[in-house]
Amino acid sequence: MPDHTIARTPSAYDFQLLIKNLLLCPVVDAPEQEIVYRNTLRYTYRGLHERVKRLANALTSLGIKRGDTVAVMDYDSHRYLECFFAVPMIGAVLHTINVRLSPEQILYTIDHAEDDILLVNAEFVPILEQIRGRIDTVKRYVLLNDEATPPATTIPFAGEYEAMLQSSLPEFDFADFDENTRATTFYSTGTTGMPKGVYFSHRQLVLHTMGALGVLGSIRGHGCFHRQDVYMPITPMFHVHAWGLPYAATMLGVKQVYPGRYVPDLLLELIEKEGVTFSHCVPTILHMLLKHPHAQRIDLSKWKLIIGGAAMSRALCLDAMKRGIDVFTGYGMSETCPLLTLSHLTPEMLALPPEEQAAIRCRTGSSLPLVDLKVVDVALNEQPRDNVTPGEIVVRAPWLTQGYLKDNKASERLWEGGWLHTGDVAVRDERGYVRITDRSKDIIKVAGEWVSSLELEDIIAHHPGVSEVAVIGTADEKWGERPLALVVPRPDSRVTEKDISHLVKEYADRGLVNKQVVLLKVRFVDAIDKTTVGKVSKVTLREKYSV
Fold it and tell me: Residue 144's closest CA among 117, 168, 122?
């Protein structure tokens, strides 16, 4: 049998999929395109490239070498973008610290990741002060400061970020190395125990970028991300690299806007002033922005918005659509880099009435290129694509994490049977569109039947008197479990428990949901507990209300 293996010519370039290649072409092709930080700074891609090289020199002068770990505690900023490139480009690992974790959890992640240098925003210095005496690995600290004066602190900073860049050389030779080199580490918030370390290689991040752009650029009009867009993330850069989209935006060479700390007034001002056309966020952020008084005077009709991290209710989707926002769902998780699916609509779907469109925009969507996604039973047999039969979503793709840092047992569980297990329960229709019905741990089992908390939340959110809702299961001697709806009413609402129970019963009587939902209990609350990345924390809610 002939050998068809491609032989490499000795002099040919051995191209590695490295993060540096996402930056270099835009610098050449769009050198004068802008990068904006809040209302305080703007510079060009040419300037970005120079600052990345200066940062590489600054870090190496502090002793950082290939294989070391550089940690960052910052808001969404131009500095973070520079770290997204400079740190992995010198062969080091970027640890994006979740600043919303507790001080004890932050301490754990710093030591577990074996951070060598820590870059910290002045606003987070008080957190660092609490734990610094117990940090074992960090050798140097660098201050990130937006103010003219440094904070009062006993931390021995090796320097201030901007001053270090200015004193560093503007040239750096970024050498090639193995594309499978680890580039980033961050810690998923999880539900129990300490956060788990998730890591990705250069190859995985480059392929995720290509996969995301492949699908986002393949749609005409709706949901498209192209070179004329203006990009602003509203998802923390510490969380799954802001869904990987800063890498995609840089590769396209688009104008980028970084808002720092999320302040509703400023976010809306930047959308208007800078002409932002493409963003992504969790539902709670969209809800906050739409309800803000300033949102009523701003034209949002050019804004394309991916919603992820939690289920978007049809009520919220319809509110956004009424403002002209091209809103649609993206799905993934920390372990998947994260994008797996997007709920893009076909031209025929875009001609549907708003209610029918919203139902599709809220679905989990269809798979990205190179994503092998299945909905399976416990034996990993694929379930029928009938939009009825539920199963767990399992996936394979070239950008999925290989496991959890220093946790072989959890890594084996994650990849049991050779598929990455998401823990999400879903159905799939004949077109391949996935609809998550619940997390496996959030399904409510009433008299042996499964009741979807997400479906109940979507129904209740349709009531005009409801601002927010979360549904959990509570123990019941007769039924095993009963659903409990925790409802935040609108300030001027007179909604009652009977109103909500009646609305849910209407859906059950029409056969649209499991008849067991009529056992719903309702409780009005002032607020819904959230995780550090803005998702509803059902673990916390169960601890507080399931007794």
Answer: 122
